[in-house]
């Protein structure tokens, strides 16, 4: 059997795209010490709001813009809960996810109940016919702009330094005059916007429509990627590519006659298992950001 | 504007905070209900009152609450020791799968053998699904939040794979399993009602948890490990071993929930068994303040809302997802209110007579963030072990 390596590599980049967006958003959150389990719901809301807007305005670009707004709002909600109030971050995150998923499904039922699947305007691939390079615009933005920019921002910019200072030691950061709360608010809102763009990729680039459970655990994957990438941009991007490769591989195997006897669901579960295994191998002994899971309030 | 710790917390503060949270929830959810074209007050009546006004309605509430008691208790048991098991969903599904095995392959067993076997299988299935994250946490300090979460979609895929593959219904060809043998039916508590003995098992577990937590030395150690991990470790309590055991018990309880659902309600395995009971378990456990009695009350409340939401979707045409919106909003407002009640807002600056700042408390040699933390706030202990190494 000829193994279509190029097709698998092309699919790897496409599948990794929403993960790169969302996981980089999660890095931004966690580097300030906040674990955002609202990621799954934020991606879901981004996917739905993007789809909704595109369906009504017939513009995929406006869809992305609306998804960004949804992500900012989701980040703001998470910030109010975890920064201003300081509630348990696991509970706040799961609550946010449940709320956003329920609200998206509710609106979906209300507006598109019954009837046929609504198909919206969607992005086209750039450079069609060039194999690996025939990708959606958001894929190019993710790998060529977002990742290097975030890497530079975190490493060298004033905002990045302040963000990391807050994440490592909010007391010291505060003493040095860094506004802890507003830095965390900014990180959560920007991060939320990235997560929502990742979610909107599923509806506005891949499918052109919205289906229930469309995110199906990709947010949780991103949380895992951030840990095993040790909160650094390029290792996390590599992790997203690893997941993308595993998923592309299973998609390829699913249509090959050799694996026709293997249940499809087992193959779909394969990339999740790869991520757990990767976490088990490279996730041991990681050093969490200093103020991980800890709210800060000036004495 | 400044937030100051209250010097004195009146006994009425916590109930008042919950009252405010409920009020805010009603206000926040009124908008979407109006959007759906219904009167919010009529909808709230459907959500929390109508289900409780008839015998049949109460039965439906108890039926809907049963799996929530299991998953809520499972989450509470783990959270209580600072082990953040968010995989009750997967463990519940694994329990349902495991209980299905004897139901399909040993259909002839009499109920006296079949039910204990299937329930034990369910508990074992849930434990098995909880095993890997717990082991990774104990051996390699790998965050259990992530691993338990990631195993949820895997469990769902396993259910779907089994139903599309070896367990596909032999008569209809649909992705539902065959019906179990006659012995595998948890009997109804009252004839003519759908409420089954799974509820009794759930209540027994609630009582057992309450006794262990409140009256035994083990309970004391568990509470200490969860509320002040470092102090507990210092006084010789094996926190990681307690977390390991609680994680497995938590998985077993969630697995029993899955078994109870297939044996008591469905009498076959279907993909519709996964409706997020595991995630809702986090809501139940938190609203129940991680206590056994609280879990029971919270499960009954969310069960009522779930039944009411079905009812409202039929009668008022408010999509049933409104139930989930109400319960998740309630979760967020209640946890916010329970934290906010420790503080009072002071406008302007300067000290106000009769208040303590956190400085004062620190000066008194007490830990910062001192207010008798409700257990849901003890998150930082979960990662203590990684940090101190």
Notes on the structure:
The complex is a heterodimer of chains A (299) and B (389). Chain A has 299 residues and is mainly α. Chain A has one domain: ABC transporter involved in vitamin B12 uptake, BtuC. Chain A contains eleven helices and no strands. Chain A has helices spanning 5-31, 39-57, 60-84, 89-112, 137-156, 158-168, 170-175, 180-207, 218-228, 233-254, 264-282. The longest helix of chain A has 28 residues, at 180-207. The radius of gyration of chain A is 19 Å and the shape is globular. The model of chain A has no long low-confidence stretch (mean pLDDT 92). Chain B has 389 residues and is an all-alpha fold. Chain B has a two-stranded antiparallel sheet with strand order 1-2. Chain B starts with a strand and ends with a helix. Chain B has 15 helices and two strands. In chain B, helix 3 crosses helix 11 (277-287). Chain B has a single domain, classed as Orthogonal Bundle (ABC transporter involved in vitamin B12 uptake, BtuC), CATH 1.10.3470.
Summarize the model shown:
The complex is a heterodimer of chains A (299) and B (389). Chain A is mostly helical. Chain A has helices at 5-31, 39-57, 60-84, 89-112, 137-156, 158-168, 170-175, 180-207, 218-228, 233-254, 264-282.
Helices and strands, with pairings:
The complex is a heterodimer of chains A (about 300) and B (about 400).
Chain A: H1 5-31, H2 39-57, H3 60-84, H4 89-112, H5 137-156, H6 158-168, H7 170-175, H8 180-207, H9 218-228, H10 233-254, H11 264-282
Helix pairs in contact in A: 1-5, 1-8, 1-9, 1-10, 2-3, 2-4, 2-8, 2-9, 3-4, 3-8, 5-6, 6-8, 9-10, 9-11, 10-11
Chain B: E1 2-5, H1 13-35, H2 40-49, H3 55-80, H4 88-105, H5 111-140, H6 144-164, H7 197-215, H8 217-227, H9 229-234, H10 239-266, H11 277-287, H12 292-315, H13 321-340, E2 343-346, H14 358-363, H15 384-388
Antiparallel strand pairs in B: 1-2
Helix pairs in contact in B: 1-2, 1-13, 2-12, 3-7, 3-10, 3-11, 3-12, 4-5, 4-6, 4-10, 4-11, 5-6, 5-10, 7-8, 7-10, 7-12, 11-12, 12-13
């Amino acid at each position: 059997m000829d193994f279509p390596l190029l097709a698998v590599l092309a699919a790897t980049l496409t599948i990794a795209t929403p993960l790169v967006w969302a996981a980089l958003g999660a890095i931004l959150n966690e580097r300030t010490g906040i674990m955002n389990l609202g990621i799954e719901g934020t991606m879901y809301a981004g996917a739905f709001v993007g789809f909704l807007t595109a369906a009504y305005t017939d513009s995929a670009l406006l869809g992305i813009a609306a998804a960004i707004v949804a992500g900012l709002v989701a980040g703001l909600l998470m910030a109010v809960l975890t920064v201003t109030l300081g509630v348990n971050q696991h509970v706040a995150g799961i609550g946010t996810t449940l709320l956003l998923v329920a609200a998206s499904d509710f609106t979906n039922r209300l507006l598109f109940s019954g009837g046929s699947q609504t198909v919206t305007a969607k992005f086209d691939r750039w450079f069609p016919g060039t194999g690996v390079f025939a990708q959606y615009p958001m894929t190019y933005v993710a790998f060529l702009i977002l990742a290097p920019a975030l890497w530079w921002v975190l490493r060298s910019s004033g905002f990045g330094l302040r963000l990391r200072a807050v994440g490592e030691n909010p007391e010291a950061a505060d003493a040095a005059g860094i506004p802890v709360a507003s830095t965390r608010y900014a990180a959560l809102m920007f991060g939320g916007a990235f997560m929502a763009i990742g979610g909107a990729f599923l509806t506005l680039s891949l499918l052109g429509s919205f289906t229930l459970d469309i995110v199906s655990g990709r947010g949780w994957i991103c949380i895992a990627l951030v840990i095993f990438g040790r909160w650094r941009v390029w290792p996390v991007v590599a992790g997203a590519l690893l997941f993308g490769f595993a998923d592309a591989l299973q998609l390829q195997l699913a249509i090959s006659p050799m694996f026709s006897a293997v249940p499809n669901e087992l193959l779909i579960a394969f990339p999740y298992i790869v991520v757990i295994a990767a976490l088990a191998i490279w996730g041991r002994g990681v050093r969490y950001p200093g103020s991980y899971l800890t709210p800060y309030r000036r004495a | 504007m400044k937030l100051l710790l209250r010097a004195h917390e009146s006994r009425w503060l916590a109930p008042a905070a919950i009252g405010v949270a409920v009020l805010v929830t009603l206000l926040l959810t009124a908008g979407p209900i109006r959007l759906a074209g219904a009167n919010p007050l009529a909808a709230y009546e459907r959500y929390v009152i109508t289900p409780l006004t008839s015998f049949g309605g109460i039965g439906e509430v108890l039926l809907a609450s049963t799996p929530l008691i299991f998953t809520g208790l499972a989450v509470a048991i783990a959270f209580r020791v600072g082990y953040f098991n968010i995989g009750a969903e997967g463990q519940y599904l694994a329990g349902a799968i495991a209980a299905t095995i004897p139901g399909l392959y040993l259909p002839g067993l009499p109920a006296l053998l079949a039910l204990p076997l299937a329930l034990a299988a369910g508990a074992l299935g849930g434990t098995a699904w909880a095993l890997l994250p717990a082991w990774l946490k104990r051996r390699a300090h790998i965050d259990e939040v992530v691993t338990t979460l990631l195993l949820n979609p895997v469990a769902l895929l396993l259910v779907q794979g089994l139903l599309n593959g070896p367990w596909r219904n032999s008569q209809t060809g649909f992705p539902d399993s065959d019906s179990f043998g006659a012995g595998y039916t948890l009997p109804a508590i009252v004839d003519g009602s759908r409420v089954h003995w799974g509820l009794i098992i759930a209540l027994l577990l609630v009582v057992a948890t309450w006794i262990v937590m409140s009256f035994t030395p083990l309970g004391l150690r568990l509470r200490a490990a969860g509320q002040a991990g470092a102090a507990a470790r210092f006084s010789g309590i094996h926190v990681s071993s307690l977390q390991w055991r609680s994680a497995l018990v938590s998985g077993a309880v969630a697995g029993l929930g899955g078994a109870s659902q297939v044996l008591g309600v469905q009498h076959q395995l279907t993909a519709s068994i996964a409706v997020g009971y595991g995630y809702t378990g986090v809501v139940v456990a938190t609203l129940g303040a991680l206590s056994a009695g609280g879990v029971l009350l919270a499960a009954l409340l969310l069960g009522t809302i779930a039944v009411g939401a079905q009812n409202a979707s039929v009668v008022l045409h408010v999509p049933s997802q409104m139930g989930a919106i109400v319960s998740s909003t309630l979760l967020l407002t209640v946890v916010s209110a329970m934290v906010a009640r420790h503080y009072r807002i002071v406008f302007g600056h300067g000290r106000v007579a009769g208040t303590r700042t956190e400085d004062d408390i620190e000066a008194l040699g007490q830990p910062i963030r001192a207010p008798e933390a409700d257990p849901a706030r003890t998150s930082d202990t979960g990662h203590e072990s990684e940090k101190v190494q």
